[in-house]
Structures are given as C-alpha cells and as structure tokens.
Design a protein that fits this description.
Blueprint (H helix, E strand, L loop, with lengths): L3 H10 L10 E4 L6 H11 L5 E5 L26 H11 L7 E4 L5 H15 L5 E4 L6 H11 L4 E4 L16 H16 L2 H8 L1
Parallel strand pairs: 1-2, 1-4, 2-3, 4-5
Helix pairs in contact: 2-3, 4-5
Length: 199
C-alpha cells in the first residue's frame, strides 16, 4: 500500500541510523529484553564504552509491569526497568563496570534528564551516543534526549517490539494506536520545551 500520509508518518516516527562508535549507549526504560540484548551486542562489538540503563516503575500503574518476553531466561525479581536491563546486559556479557544505572524515572522525559544527572554525578563525559529504544518510540526518544543532551551527537538504533515496524504499523489496531499515540505526544508533550529550545 502506498499512501502519502502513512509514508510521512512512518518517516517521522521511525527514526533509524546505522550504528557508529560512540561514547555511550542510552537505554530508555522498558520491559522487552530486545533493547538491552541489542545494546549488549553493540557494546561487545566495541561501539561504546558505557551503557546508561534508565527506568523506574510505570507512571501509569505505579509498579514494574514485568518481563514482556523471554521470561524463562530473565526470571529475576525485578522491581524497575533499570534492574531488569542491568540483568539482561550482564547475562549478555556486559561487565557491571560499563553500566551506569538510573532507577527513578517514570517516563521518557525522566529517562533523558535523570540519565544526564547520573552521568554528571559519575563525572563521565559524553560527546556522542546511541539511543537503543523501541522503533515506534524513536522520534520521541530522540527529541527528549537531544534536549537533555544538547551538545551530544545522538544516533538512534531502534529495535522492534510488539511486532510493530515501519512497514506494518498501519495494518493493526495496536500498531495504529501506538504510532499515532507517539505522533500526538511528539506535539503535545513538547510545546514548552520546543519554544525554550528554539529561542
């Protein structure tokens, strides 16, 4: 199906860059192991020195919502996204010395700004970074992390979760809800931030 509206939304939401060597990899919170597994792969291939795992509990449910896939492999008593991500990273060969954790954030804005706080507290200097996030979350992650780290060159290397991709999102109710929800949030969550950023 070719449709200008679908194409334009797809290009905007599904940001995708090829990985390059960077100082750090950002992992905004989640409960799918695909994100930290891919980040671990990038780390082991010398793409980054540090991984910043971010995430507390859900702002919607006020608790950690559990592992979304591979719960037989990742079966810890996790209380936060960060704790889950750290376990996945270490089980996939990343040393704890390379991981900086942030476990207080409750949404994407917090992921970005609280990651900056913990990095500054550790005295780690970052000039370049990769965000590993869900594919349909890519644009909003990029916007928020770029605002939190205005001087950092950021690339987005997303993973697919919930079987929602750039090519198929408009073919399911779940895909449409997720992607159009992201499109709306990329506008209504940023009104004040964009004005401050541009002025």
């Amino acid at each position: 199906m070719t449709n200008r509206i679908i194409d334009d939304i797809s290009k905007y939401i599904f940001v995708h860059d090829e990985p390059q060597k960077v100082d750090a990899i950002f992992l905004p919170g989640g409960s799918h192991p695909t994100q930290p597994e891919y980040a671990a792969e990038l780390y082991k291939n010398d793409y980054a020195k540090f991984l910043i795992a971010s995430g507390g509990v859900s702002i919607k449910s006020d608790k950690w919502n559990g592992v979304r896939s591979k719960a037989d492999m990742y079966d810890g008593d996790y209380q936060t996204d960060c704790e889950f991500f750290v376990d996945v990273l270490t089980k996939n060969g990343v040393p704890l010395t390379a991981i900086i954790g942030e476990d207080k954030s409750r949404h994407t804005r917090d992921n970005a700004y609280l990651s900056r706080k913990v990095i500054e507290e550790k005295g780690v200097k970052i000039n370049t970074a990769i965000i590993v996030c869900k594919a349909f979350h890519a644009r909003r992650c990029l916007m928020l992390y770029q605002m939190a780290f205005p001087d950092v060159e950021i690339r987005v290397c997303p993973v697919h979760c919930f079987n929602i991709t750039k090519e198929n999102w408009y073919k399911s109710e779940q895909g449409i809800d997720r992607v159009l929800g992201e499109l709306a949030r990329c506008g209504n969550q940023f009104i004040g931030d964009i004005k401050a950023y541009l002025m």
